[in-house]
Amino acid sequence: MQYNFPKNFMWGAATSAAQVEGGWNEGGRGPSIMDILGGSVDGSVHRHQTEKVMPDVYYPGHVASDFYHNFKEDIALMGQMGLKSYRMSISWSRVFPKGDEAVPNEEGLKFYDEVFEELSKYNIEPIVTILHYDAPLYLADHYGGWSNRKMIDFYINYCEVLFNRYKGKVKHWITFNEINCLLVPFGVITAGAMNMSYKSQDNTEQLRVQALHHQFVASAKAVALGHRIDNNNQIGCMIAYMCNYPLTCHPDDIRLAQKEDQIKNMLCGDVMIRGSYPVFARRYFKEKDIHIEMFPEDEEILKDGTVDFYSMSYYMTNCIGNDKSKELTAGNLVYGMKNPYLEATEWGWQIDPIGLRWVLNHVYDRYQIPIMIVENGMGTVDIVQDGRIHDVYRIDYLRQHIEQIGESIHDGVDVIAYTTWSALDLVSLSGGTMRKRYGFIYVDKDDEGNGDLKRIPKDSFYWYQKVIENNGEVLD
Q: What total number of domains does the chain contain?
């Protein structure tokens, strides 16, 4: 079937500052909460949290893919690939090293000036995430992160600097990456509450939901501010879509899947798009004995700061049901039941392109605002053979998902962007490894930090180049 993508469709790729930039202590940058997530060097690299940067711990994000020193080469490669958009993030602690200063770090701002200038050379539209998990570590240590309402003012000060500095250079903004992850235990890290492990008994749903409310208010204030500063700004939310099918057609499984979808996926969208908490949240909070501390003005702030577009990450689907004997499978720090009809990656992520079409239709039926898919990709081990990477598996994954995006557009869904994860290889969030590779561009670095960081376009690079050239009409 031939797919008629819109002429101005924003074909692109994505990264985040904490996973790709490096230069963690250069240019006046302060440490972020992601800088104390280390990795082992004993051959079993995994994420583990330290209280501060320790001399005997390897931190993969400190150098990452070294975009900080190689951004001109990397953006030139993006231009060669023909990207129309680049979804990236700005490191808060590069702009405000501690996070609570009144005056920003000029050297950090100049770095992003140069990044945006390079993108402009190749007519690549930046889609900028304002906070992608990496709040300044100082705010965690001294304020307790997002469970403290003071974070709202610090964030808005940061946003005001960005909106004014990059007016005319950036039009598309995302306030918080995967904001709904605060509803799962790992979300305590995104809340900036780094005085505890996500497995800690202090990591309560009460703490995370309160932090989430503060992020809702901060996002709404940022939307209103961004529109005042530049009425051309388009500002969106970003949801990690956790799609769970009922394991069986038993009514209990159907209801369980519905409830999971409401709480994990729709609650955040409803607040940020409709401007108020959904009715189903009241019962959920009551049953969980969750009490959100709100200021009298919060309801009006949420109504006045609704977003312009919906963006999301989508990688896989899981099943959910009441039969606890069924086998579980992994999925980006969230576990679900195995689906017997799906294949999975070597990391257990179940590959489900048709699920993306279901999600797109489901979301658009509810909200009817433009949708961006800002993360979608396949993480796997890539082998260099004679200086080439033949990643046909990644091409197959992306082709199948793009086909379903085309079907969704044919269904009437207003999809305006597709930025794959990721533009180039980077440090994986869940494992802190380089061997789990997502990029179109190979980066020569291993899990222990060895390698010369040489960039090598993979076969998928040239395949995606052709997809963009013909606007998705030919996917072979």
A: 1
